[in-house]
Amino acid sequence: FKLPSDSFKYLSWWDIEQNDVRGNQLRCPRVREGPSKEQLFFRGEEHTLKRRKQVTDTEKWQKKLQENWENCAELNLSFQDLGDLYQVENFKRILRRLIRVEKLWLVDNSLTDLSAIRLPRCRELNVNKNHFTSLKQLPKTPQIQHLSLAENNIMTLKGISDFRHTPLESLILKRNPCEFQERYRQLVFSSLPNLKTLDGIPKLPEDCSPPDIRFIFKMCTIL
Length: 223
What we know:
With 223 residues, the chain is α/β, with parallel strands linked by helices. It folds into two domains: 1-67, no CATH class; 72-208, Alpha-Beta Horseshoe (Leucine-rich repeat, LRR (right-handed beta-alpha superhelix)). The chain is 19% helix and 9% strand. The chain has helices at 37-42, 57-67, 85-96, 184-191, 213-217; strands at residues 74-76, 103-105, 124-126, 146-148, 170-172, 197-198, 201-202. It has a seven-stranded mixed β-sheet, covered by helices on one side. Helix 4 links the parallel strand 5 and strand 6. Keywords: Leucine-rich repeat, Repeat. InterPro entries: LRR_dom_sf (IPR032675).
């Protein structure tokens, strides 16, 4: 069964000239830019390069201004199909420009490490269905309130205390190996006292860590 787009699969992308669409006006843009002529040459793949229009430095600067990533407040960059290393680096370049984004979706992008990225105003981040193996690999989000990490490969809760000084209210870690850790919910809530919801379930009385048994044994009872 062929998709409706099948007849267009061999078409090339072309820049639409003389348009005034800004990057912050797009909710679900696609990052599909290919390697430059110089990069293809050094990789020995210049034969794959089709003739492109020569772009001046002025045109490059105008294009950067038109992207306007700095003014994005809500953005969905999911399902990008980043098959080439160049596309991954270009994707990270865009993330570094999201200095005002508050809601960001990066679902199913095969991401492994965004620790060098800082999102200073991000309040809601969804990175479901990626390849993160540690909480240390997430971007820096000092204002995060809602974080979704479902269906990654996070093995342990190491690094969760980094969110202790953030306003994090809800966290989703379901379908990660760390979910099967003994006393999983108690460990998460003890590390994040201000957390209200874990995996869609509000904080329950049994989620509060019991007193340390070793401390009880050291106490003496005076009758």
